[in-house]
Amino acid sequence: MLGFLRRKAEPDPSPKVLRVPSKKFNAAVGAAMAAIHELEEITTRAKSRMSDQKRPIGQGDLEEVLRMLSDAKRRIDSEMEDEIAKSDDQGDTEWNKDGYDLLVAPTFRMANSPQEIIDLTLRASDGGAKSARLVYQLVIAEMDVAVARYYVTLNTGIKTE
Predict the structure, then answer these.
(1) What angle do CA 35, 37, 43 make, to 5 degrees?
(2) Which residues contact 130 (CB under 8 A, 6 or more apart)?
(3) In Å, how far from its chain's centre is CA 66?
């Protein structure tokens, strides 16, 4: 279906081998799984708060979600650093460009997703977003998208960026 909309892939004349330290990649896989868990937990709490009709979403609610994301990022980074430090693996994993783009890059991005969401939120606020409720909804949507993007890329091989 919609095959007429697909671009024909042009062969890469020079397939490159990309090397990633094994211990760094293995730590990133664990960090990505931790980020998924953290984002899902934060999203559940944030959505619950959104459904509470007794009190409108305010700046404090937004700051609380950003604090939770920041705490999650600190925990994830700490776990990743600990994993790298305790690993004796000095080897590298080798990836062609496609493999790197479909597994390695999304894994590192997922591991860093709490920070990406914080940065996006701060850009929205600095850019003049006035409604705490709308920015709060943006944060929730971005957390859902980060998790979905990672799973779609891993399960389908489709680059989602």
Answers:
(1) 95
(2) none
(3) 15
Distance separating alpha carbons of residues 64 and 67, to the nearest angstrom: 5
pLDDT on residue 128: 87
Contact 20, 111 (CB under 8 A): no
At 97, list the tokens: 């460009």
Contacts 24+ apart (CB under 8 A), 145-148: 146/35, 146/39, 146/110, 146/113, 146/116, 146/117, 147/36, 147/39, 147/40
Classify 69 in phi/psi space as left (phi over 0), alpha (psi -120 to 50) or beta: alpha
pLDDT digits (tens, 9 = 90+) for 104-144: 999 999 999 999 999 999 999 888 888 999 999 999 999 99
Residues 55-71 as b/e (b if ≥16 CB within 10 A, e otherwise) read eebeeebbebbbebbee
Per-residue confidence band for 6, with pLDDT thresholds at 50, 70 and 90: low
Joined together, the tokens standing for residue 80 give 């990743």
Quick one: how far is CA 136 from the chain centroid? 17
Q: How many helices (H) and strands (E) would you count in the chain?
A: 5, 2
